[in-house]
């Protein structure tokens, strides 16, 4: 019987408890031990707790920390503190830790994995990226023979749901966001999702593992989807593409490039058909080529699947060799100005002869080749112009934009979105 | 330094050697040991071997078996014998074994895993299913908290390439097969691929692990793609579907159903867009929901990716708790007659009034509801008729077919293909 303590009884905590109860017979057959939830840490409140759990509930972390029967501590409270402090204490006390906390792992994974190594305990965090989708262990073990040079994924279900609604149901951003909130797919304060911060944390974790170099969320160039309009979705469609919030990590000649941005993806790209709240992660290695992992990236039971599987792994592998921090390289993380990609640009200009050539001229002067330029609807003398560039250094693109912005014929530079591959 | 012996220097063996040489620095960082290929077993022949390998080559298996420096034996020769005997001897001698051999594992995995358990050594076979795609370890570990009730995959790249060519390039089966042979995607004797035997072995391995009950290839109902014609591909397209060779394993109320057959899949099914030589495996668990794994299911370097990653795992985990045979249940494997699915049927009949109603009548008498019936081209008085049924027990469908076949107006029952889901 493996006794565990759980920190937090929110959505993921409740799912974890339910899944252990439901599948404990299967768990016992698979790891030769049942899992016994001995204690659950919750905040003191008037909240009604399920009767079956009442004598497991505690309001004191030390009550769990000091319990010598408890060998695995499961952190599913979320947020940076006090989760970080609790995990640190648990590891230092020689307890195995399973966590779903992307914020703690993306910012403090290196410190925590070092403590885990000193204490020879497991620190597992499969649930921190991609919910129930197996990705951390496959990266660290199944693909370990590869030099991995790219990870690319749809890592946030909320934004993918919103973009899917904008594409398939012809909704504008605000409307799709409200609907996502009503459906429970977006929080009342959706900032972390919408602005790309959630995906940036997950990308920092994936990139650190894939490229064996430490990447923290602050180093990830991050743009949200709140500037994407329904017009962009329609023009993307005309260009044979869809707009997705994509997290991209690339390794190249001793440097790493990490970004979370809206991206125009050709419709035949494997990530283009990942819709709704589904997530997917593509990994490219020198031997394996491209592999993709797909599934539900959030939610009570999918996340509990990863948490409970990690608990089983921690119990099974308590005496085995463990994998700790794998960031043995120190690669430079490029600044956005040093990165290269194609761009889609939508702008509004006074509909007069010579405007298009002036815009094209500004790109030409900055060594930017254009793959497509077309003029759309003219309303009240203002024309909408769409430009697609070939690959271009981000700083050249910004310089061209600044020049174009000075032209008096330009009414507005509405959207600039990266393009992955060639349209 | 972990010293290994490799059995076989064909495509996968050569890839394994090349990958270890290329990435040994990365391997050393990741598992704290370099891999040293000490000996390679090849058949005595006049074949020219690379000079760099000359002093590693041996013609005697015992030379590797009795070498006390060698702790891991890598079997990449393929075929049932002598591979089975060699693996058995290696395990009994206390050596870790890594193999890519689907035939040996699907037929003898239980016996070999028992020996491995007795000797406390690793027996790893990630490369036996899906080439470089991580699937065995994800099933055994990352998804271990789930009650898994379905695995469904495109497990054979050769047949998927042929069906893709038939669909996208408007080719007939024979033409597409010849082209696949010319491109090196099909062997000169393509029987194992075309008839579904290769996929059946892989499904037996996946189902045994997913459902924790032993399934051997002989229990897999297996149909090949050689009866699929270009007409079927076109009619499937009109029905909003594609034809794929799909391996399906389902668990239901104490029994298991396993089949490899051509299947009509709706175009929005995640497996429908898996084209060319790519493979993909969907797994459905009670907590995680659907997850999919996608990548190159064969080929020199993708397969080497899985083999070398397994070697690294065997070295890393030599002293840890290992996962052996997980078939602790003994579920009944249903016979084809006990299974239920929808069917697509194409037949040729004399174009006379009353034929359609007679056909519909035969289905009705066998409690089979039809979702679609339509008549296609009539040539020289013979009409092509396409029927799509709702879900129906296979034995009822066969009974109806036998009755229809007796009608003198029926010229030919051309094709019967399973339908997954509703069209």
From TrEMBL, chains A, B:
Enzyme nomenclature, EC number: 1.1.1.3
GO biological process: one example: methionine biosynthetic process
Main EC class the enzyme belongs to: oxidoreductase
Any GO molecular function: homoserine dehydrogenase activity
Positions of the catalytic residues: 202
Protein name: Homoserine dehydrogenase
Pathway participation: Amino-acid biosynthesis; L-threonine biosynthesis; L-threonine from L-aspartate: step 3/5; Amino-acid biosynthesis; L-methionine biosynthesis via de novo pathway; L-homoserine from L-aspartate: step 3/3
Domain ACT intervals: 344-418
Native species: Tepidanaerobacter syntrophicus
């Amino acid at each position: 019987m493996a006794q565990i303590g759980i920190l937090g009884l929110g959505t993921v905590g409740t799912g974890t408890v339910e899944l252990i109860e439901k599948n404990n017979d299967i768990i016992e057959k698979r790891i030769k031990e049942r899992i016994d939830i001995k204690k659950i840490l919750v905040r003191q409140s008037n909240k009604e707790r399920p009767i079956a759990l009442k004598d497991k509930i505690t309001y004191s972390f030390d009550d769990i920390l000091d319990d010598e029967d408890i060998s695995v501590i499961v952190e599913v409270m979320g947020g940076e503190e006090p989760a970080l402090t609790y995990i640190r204490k648990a590891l230092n006390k020689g307890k195995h830790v399973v966590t779903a906390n992307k914020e703690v792992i993306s910012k403090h994974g290196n410190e925590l994995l070092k403590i885990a190594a000193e204490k020879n305990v497991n620190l597992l965090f499969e649930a921190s990226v991609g919910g129930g989708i197996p990705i951390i262990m496959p990266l660290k073990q199944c693909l370990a023979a590869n030099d991995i040079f790219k990870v690319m994924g749809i890592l946030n279900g909320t934004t993918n749901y919103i973009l899917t609604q904008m594409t398939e149901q012809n909704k504008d951003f605000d409307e799709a966001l409200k609907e996502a909130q009503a459906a429970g797919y977006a929080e009342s304060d959706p900032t972390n999702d919408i602005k790309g911060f959630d995906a940036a944390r997950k990308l920092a974790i994936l990139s650190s593992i894939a490229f064996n170099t430490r990447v923290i969320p602050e180093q990830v160039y991050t743009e949200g989807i709140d500037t994407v309009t329904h017009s962009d979705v329609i023009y993307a469609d005309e260009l044979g593409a869809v707009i997705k919030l994509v997290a991209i990590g690339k390794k190249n000649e001793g440097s790493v490039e990490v970004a979370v941005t809206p991206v125009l993806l050709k419709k035949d790209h494997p990530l283009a058909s990942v819709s709704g709240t589904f997530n997917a992660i593509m990994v490219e290695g020198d031997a394996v080529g491209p592999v993709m992992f797909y599934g539900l990236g959030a939610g009570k039971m999918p996340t509990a699947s990863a948490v409970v599987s990690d608990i089983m792994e921690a119990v099974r592998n308590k005496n085995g060799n463990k994998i700790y921090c794998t960031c043995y390289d120190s690669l430079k993380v490029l600044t956005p100005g040093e990165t290269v990609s194609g761009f889609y640009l939508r702008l509004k200009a006074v509909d007069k002869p010579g405007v298009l050539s002036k815009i094209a001229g500004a790109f030409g002067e900055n060594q930017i080749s254009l793959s497509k330029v077309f003029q759309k609807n003219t309303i009240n003398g203002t024309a909408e112009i769409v430009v697609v560039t070939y690959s271009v250094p981000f700083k050249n693109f910004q310089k061209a934009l600044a020049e174009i912005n000075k032209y008096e014929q330009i009414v507005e530079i509405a959207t600039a979105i990266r393009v992955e591959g060639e349209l």
